[in-house]
UniProtKB/TrEMBL annotation:
A single cellular component GO annotation: cytoplasm
Region: Disordered, residue numbers: 383-404
Molecular function via GO: guanyl-nucleotide exchange factor activity; zinc ion binding
Keywords: Cytoplasm, Cytoskeleton, Guanine-nucleotide releasing factor, Metal-binding, Zinc, Zinc-finger
High-level lineage: Eukaryota, Amoebozoa, Tubulinea, Elardia, Arcellinida
Subcellular location: Cytoplasm, Cytoskeleton
Domain FYVE-type: 323-384
PANTHER family: FACIOGENITAL DYSPLASIA PROTEIN, LD03170P
Name of the protein: Uncharacterized protein
Chaperone listed as a keyword: no
SMART domains the UniProt entry points to: FYVE (SM00064), PH (SM00233), RhoGEF (SM00325)
Keyword Chaperone among UniProt keywords: no
Amino acid sequence: MTEQLYIKDLLTLQMVWEKPLTKEKALKVKQEWLDDLFGNLEQVITTNVGFYKALYYWLESEIKDKTLGDILIQYMPFFQNYGDYVSGYDKAIYTFEKMMKQPALQKWFSNIQANEPLAKGLNFDAFLIKPVQRVPRYKLFIDRLLKCTPQDDPDFPKLPAALEKCDKIAHVINSAKEKQIQREFMSKIAEKIDCGNELLMIPGRSFVKDIQIDKITRKSKRQPRHLFLFTDVLMVATDTLTERCVVQVKLQLKGSEVKDLPDDVENGFLNRFQFLSYPKSLELAAASKEEKDKWMELLLARIQEADKSLGSKIKVIPMFEPDAKVKRCPICSEKFTAVFRKHHCRQCRRVVCGNCTKHKRKLPSQSEGERKKRVCDDCWKHDEHWTPEGATSDAPYVSSSDEE
Ligand SMILES: [Zn+2]
Ligand SMILES: [Zn+2]
């Protein structure tokens, strides 16, 4: 094991970055950032040096009063330091990225990378990751030791315990690596999505999958959309090849529903399904049967998963009642004609005549600044949360979608 070189790298981390960052007041580095970055580096170094020395003396000395197993067991607590370091690594990288957004700090870091010989032309994060990369090597070392130690050797019974501890740390490292991959992925996704002034990368959210799909409007028109599925929300965005996809609405998965729709061969809408959510519900048409099945399954699985999370469930917005189905106004019973036209109540989503939808009100699903919406007389008699019997998402409303 090239412990010496490794320890030198750790000392470089302290000397080249930690000390100056702590001292140079002009850089305005917050104490909490330093804690995030260097956490227990000092402990990691101290125990590492001790372990290295003990190992070195053991190899050099002729009379061995301890076994190698004794040394390993003695220094096993030092793997706990590694565990702590590795668990904190995720946050350290996050803090480092945050710091790199400040021009003064970015300049400072790249100056060191370019001019400090100890940095060997590498940036800070290349050193920060060293202890994380180290543990699997210790595990390998113990593995090898276990293999070449005879079963009657006094070391033998001690090694599995050491190996088990290494395994635990290696497990922590693996999940940290997965998080790292996910984080890189999220920043790539973030480049593709424009979600206004809302934060895309919130803690606990990870990206699942995206798809280009057609949205079917209430007026039976196709609109190309790009859906981005995350572990907690479905983002519905515009779909353009050249620019970033602009998020139109963010739909919470918890409490949402997915509903299969039969093919509408007459109008050429195949592979349809509904995503019922809040503040909007959508009708979608996938490019193929396989894609539809895959996405319905994926959405259902994710909704199920999200339903287990804490927080309140949404009340899904029903789809608009399709025009074609309704012959008479359900309120005044007047027959619809080419002149006596159909309107949609934005609250109960039924087809109603113009005379019976004279009122307007602000609905709970609307965002601030939106205009008041047309509601029918039945809804007007009640408050804005009311829905008539049968106008829930279970109603057999099939071929329409939530379009303003
Ligand atoms: Zn009417
Ligand atoms: Zn109504």
